[in-house]
Amino acid sequence: MTSSQSKYTGILIHVLIWAVVLVMPLFVTSPDRPLMSGMEYVRFLVVPISFMVIFYINYFLLIDRLLTRHRLAMFIVVNVLMVAVVMAAVHLLFRYVLPSDLHRPPKERPLMDTLMFFMRNALMYFLVIGASVAVRMTGGWYKAEAARKELEHRRSEAELQNLKSQINPHFLFNTLNNIYSLIQIDTTRAQTALHDLSHLLRYVLYGSNRQSVPLDDEVHFIREYIDLMRLRLPRHVNVNISLTGHSGTMIAPLLFIALVENAFKHGVSNDKPSYVNICITFEDGAVICETHNSYFPKSGDTDRSGSGIGISNLSRRLEMLYPGHYILEYGLSGDEYRTYMRIKL
User: What's the whole-number mean pLDDT along residues 177-204?
Assistant: First the structure.
């Protein structure tokens, strides 16, 4: 619930509890104990009201000003004096203002009985103080915990937004490098690639601002990206794709692009036979993306495809978006580089 809802809920709980305490005697009757008279009920109210005074002075004032500031000795002294004053006031009310029998003077009690009586009453008041501290501290802990979770959520959202913002320049950098290479080969095809790139960028810019997109849209984006990559590939590169969406299924945007980019980045050689296989499927409520490609690692001099943040970025996003519901595996298997990502949606 929101902080406003939490505040009003707390007030309602206080009102209901005290209402039950104050109204209960009006409904507790038995053959040997008839319904309270008006004066009896007024006498009854004195003690609960004194409890309320002790409870809320601590709840709203003393706990915040003394206890939470580590002034425990002062907190105890103030409460002892307050309990003494309240008990004296209640005693005087019962003895001189609201006596149980106006025609009979109050009985004198032995000193020991009087001391025991006051000690029992004092214990009740200190239990009320303890309840006030417990309720206030528990409420403070819940507020602090809620604030911590909200801060953590906002930090996670900010980090996730930062990760998503890195995708745009990374994707653009890689794609422009591909088009740059294509310009040297075929100017007409490079113009076509720029046109296709504008369509892809529209999806990247607007799709990354949403928490989730249809899986079909994401698959269509990957298909268009692969078509763009094919424009500059030599004839000896074999590309096989199998892309299957699923109508009505939503997924976080731009999760596949890092794997696909890496497959083309490291799977293509300019002078040797090479291949890139990409498969995206949906089965049993999970989306699976697999890539297999020949492995031609780029050296620092020839790598113009970006800063290498793709896989680490993807891994961090998956941990934040689908914790415990994903598998991400990648690495060399012989002369082939493989990646496997499975996300339970």
Answer: 80
| Single-letter code of the amino acid located at 114 | T
If we measure between CA atoms, which residue out of 227, 154, 149, 157 comes closest to residue 192? 227
pTM for the full model? 0.54
Instruction: Please name every residue paired with 341 in a beta bridge, in sequence order, or none if there are none.
Output: 289, 328
Q: Residues 339, 329: contact at Cβ < 8 Å?
A: yes
Residues in a beta bridge with 275 = 238
Strand duo 274-283 + 237-243: pairing: parallel
Q: What are phi and psi of 282, to 5 degrees?
A: -130, 120
Mean per-residue pLDDT over the chain, rounded: 83
Q: Give every CB contact of residue 171 below 8 A, 6+ residues apart in sequence.
A: 200, 204, 254, 257, 261
Residue 96 to residue 314: CA distance in whole angstroms: 79
Q: Which helix (H) or strand (E) holds 194?
A: helix 187-207
243, exposed or middle or buried, with CB in 10 Å at 0-12, 13-18, 19+? Answer: middle
Task: Residue 287: name the closest of 261, 240, 330, 325 by CA.
Answer: 325
Written as one string, the DSSP assignment of 74-129 is HHHHHHHHHHHHHHHHHHHIIIIIS-S-TTSPPPP--HHHHHHHHHHHHHHHHHHH
Task: State pLDDT tens for residues 112-137.
Answer: 777 888 899 899 999 999 999 998 88
